[in-house]
# Entry
Amino acid sequence: MPRYTKTAMLLHWLVALLIIATFFLGLSMVAIPGFSPTKLKYFSWHKWMGVTVLLLAVLRVLWRVTHRPPPKLVSIPDWQHKIAEGMHVLLYLLIFAVPLSGYLYSYAAGVPVVYLGLWQMPAPFAPDPELKATLKTVHYVLTMTMAASVVAHALAALKHHFIDRDMTLKRMLPL
# Structure
């Protein structure tokens, strides 16, 4: 069975876990009322995780460009391959767009992003209250689109595994 490379699998699952963790941390932090040390800590962790996702996304794209994925499974209809390709394009776009929108939102709000508490990332522009409101909405909409896309992607993989009983999921599992 042709499979993805171990590096592709590692990057896939690491990014997936970080996206899920970042999403739920984001939900938790915004649910904390007021301003507290815990909320501030969660915001910092959320930003660190977002930057890490962005860095790993760059590695994923570089790996994908230099390493061909396994061939399509011939047992899957072409229309499903087209949907899967579209979903992968959407997921890659969102893997970049969500953290970038959060980064820009943070700077529009006048709050620097200090990666791992060590390196202050460059400010692309001065704080801007109007842009802050727009970017907050953009970040939220992109995040919810990402969440829905990740759920759809996971459900499709499970459908292939448990209903179709094909090798789609197994090709990405480090067995």
Remarks:
- The first helix runs from residue 6 to 31.
- The chain has a mean pLDDT of 97.
